[in-house]
Design goal:
- There is one protein chain.
- With 243 residues, the chain is α/β, with parallel strands linked by helices.
- It has one domain (10-217).
- It is built from 10 helices and 4 strands.
- It has helices at 22-29, 50-56, 74-77, 104-123, 125-141, 153-170, 172-188, 192-203, 212-222, 224-228, and strands at residues 10-13, 40-44, 62-65, 91-95.
- A 4-stranded mixed beta sheet has the order 1-2-4-3, covered by helices on one side.
- Helix 1 (22-29) links the parallel strand 1 (10-13) and strand 2 (40-44).
Length: 243
Amino acid sequence: MVVHHKIAPHFEFKSRELERIRPLCDRILQQFDKLPALRLLCYFDDEIPDWMLRVHGEFQIAHTPIIGGGTWPPYVKKYFFDLHGERAYDNLIYVPTSNYLHGEVSFVIILAHALQHFVQWGFSRKIYKANSILFNKLRLFEPTTNAKPWDIPFNREAMIVAKKVAIAVCGEKAVAEFVEAQIADGRNSKNTSKEQQWLCFREITISTSYDSCKETDRLVQKYKQQLLALKSGIDFSKPKWWI
């Protein structure tokens, strides 16, 4: 069982120049009242290796458990284990260099989003795993679906939290201006997905409650037969499969 008290995440910065964002990281963390009692490594990179671009494409941030969480640069992996070969961390948030890393509002949004995924993974593991399956398999389950990545409940909840944290840290005006700039950039570059994503973010009301379990279960019931056919380790046949 995960105990509800804070264990401070550990921040590693690849370069001294990146150390400047440490105070901002601390301000973001202050907005999270409860973090899982798990060891979190946050690594901030001043590059993104070419092989990672080839494997993953461009991305701004990633959250993953250390075990089974994929392949990472050697200078990141060296922190995964202590001098005795024991696992030093449970989860990783990896932030490669990008425009999002170097802007205050954008950085707050992406780090708060990833921290909320860490919260979800720590406190609601089966719900998180169900969302991950839906995120990766939804188009196989329903090829004609119009659902977007931000429609998956764990992403929608993370967006709500990210907007709330960004407003608390940066102010409502700065966040609104940033979001409008992203919408305009998506529109001008004919990047429909980007435009739609930030339009969705703009419409989020941070005071609105969001029941991630309820919304996830709604999708689980819709795609129950497909989910039951997978070897996921979750018994989706149970009424309260998330317990």
